[in-house]
Amino acid sequence: MSQKKIDRRSKESMVQFLNDHFRYNTMNSWNGSTSYAHCIKLHNLGLSSEQLDKAFKVIQTDIWDELDMQIQDFVTQMHGAYTIGSNGRSGGYLVLLSSEWKSTGYKSYCRTCYQRNYKACGNTEGDNTCGSCRATGDQGRVNYAMPPRQLSVSHAGIDDEGDFEDWSMEQLRARVNVVEAFDSACDDILVAFLDMLEMDVVEETIMVPEKRYVLQTSHAQ
Ligand SMILES: [Zn+2]
Prior knowledge:
Elements: H1 11-20, E1 23-25, E2 34-39, H2 49-58, H3 63-77, E3 82-87, E4 93-103, E5 108-110, E6 116-117, E7 141-143, E8 149-153, H4 169-196
Antiparallel strand pairs: 1-2, 2-4, 3-4, 4-8, 5-6, 5-7
Helix pairs in contact: 1-4, 3-4
The chain binds zinc ion (ZN).
């Protein structure tokens, strides 16, 4: 998927790179918002028929658990400003989405039961009693060293209009950097997926505990 190096001194080549990039919907087709994307449909990956057979088995497993690591690397690289979503029927497209780190609002947590709390503690003696399990003191609540955050993802389109006329060279370079990093992250995801084709798909039966009600002879009789 990687393209050749884009000349960042030329407005024309940067605009052309952005305008020519494959795009896909960020949500539904009727919503009309699109962003930079890559098609990762299995038939599009240039796999041999043997690899293709294997790929259909591999996608029955939780592949996004594995591939999420690659996406998280990209989010970190982008300081949370962008992430990669999958869209389309059976997730056949990787789409660039804008995002933002937001605080969860939690300031402290309980060292005994891990219940989280919106209030900070440690201001006065005994103010760290857990509201859930009542643990206090060394066992009670403690403030987070790094308050937890979560990634808030937007499904708004990115450069829907494709009109870069008024963009400065700086703005264009910044956007090309993001889209190039996205392309390279999609390459990494693909490589990770191809690595999975070397692995065996094993069928596993798991026992799930289930609660049921049965009738028993009453002991009172
Ligand atoms: Zn607790």
